[in-house]
Amino acid sequence: MLEQRRTTNILLLFIVVPLVFYLLKILSFIFIPLISSMFIALLFLPLMRWLGRRNVPRLISIIIVITLIVIGVFIGVELVQLSSKQILSNDSGFFGKAEVKINELMLYMQDKVGMEYNPEGNFLSQFFQKETIGSTFDFVRKFLTNILMITFFTILWLSESINMHKVLNNTILKRKHTSIKAFMKIEKDLITFIKVKFLVSLLTGIFTGLACVFFDVSFPIFWGLFAFLINFVQMVGSFISVILLSIFAFVELDPTSTLFFFILSITGVQVLFGAILEPIFMGKSFSINVITVLIMLMLWGFIWGIPGLIMAIPITVFIKIILEQFQETKTIATLLSGPERTIPPLKNK
User: Fold this and answer.
1) Which of 51, 103, 230, 290 shows the smallest number of beta carbons within 10 Å?
2) Which string of DSSP letters, residue by residue, matches 78-133?
3) Domain boundaries, the chain
């Protein structure tokens, strides 16, 4: 009887899990803002508690948090506008040089690989067709809609209309002490992740922009902002940033030692902040297996696209902490974790 029940539970698991992921993909327009707002609210919870201890009304505290978020968004928009003006006002002939080098590369590919290419057309103008402009407006519309929904859900989280602790206690954990302990660990680890990731991404963007200025590569503000944003995609973002900026520098700079040292510099920035300082700041408690990171990036990237790539690691940490609370799933949580770094005990003389 017990064996039959166990088999039934396993079969139900195989049915339920794909169904859950399917619903997450279909209802992404709700779940992406909901999960994003949860992480934002967690980041500001310590500030809310600090204001509460000073008898600041909750409504005023929420207004303060929303004001801080609006200021952050405003700074981001200003940076985007500044980088756009820098690109549009560029008169160094970059686009002409890019067109020449792209034509040369495409003719080489046509000769060696046999791919079809029309050198009489303007390659760069293909990105400014009516279809592209229409898709851009559609992207802006969806982006603004998501921002409004994220703001709405963030207010609900901060006002405790959606209480994460009660949700955990009533649905998954069912034990008050365990749910409090799990919630505190989730909050601590995710706040650590968001703070460290933001700081590392900010430093990566600043030093990438400074490298562009030092080596006289065009659009340093744009590339600094791009490096900052793409760095939120764990592991993959660093490779994308280095590869795209290297291709851009290859178009603009002559293939000399200057190009080599520029690529070496931006690679060094990514290695220093992403591979050395970030793991140190994250600490041992935040260790996740590299294979787990790659699998989760592919899974959530497939389900939610770019937002999924950004939220893949925080979601993994959330799942890992929940699995650690049950004896039956501690083995799975251990598999998700990275290798433990232990300090050997001192030998008595």
Assistant:
1) 290
2) HHHHHHHHHHHT--S-HHHHHHHHHHHHHHHHHHHT-----TTS-TGGGGGSHHHH
3) 2-115+151-336
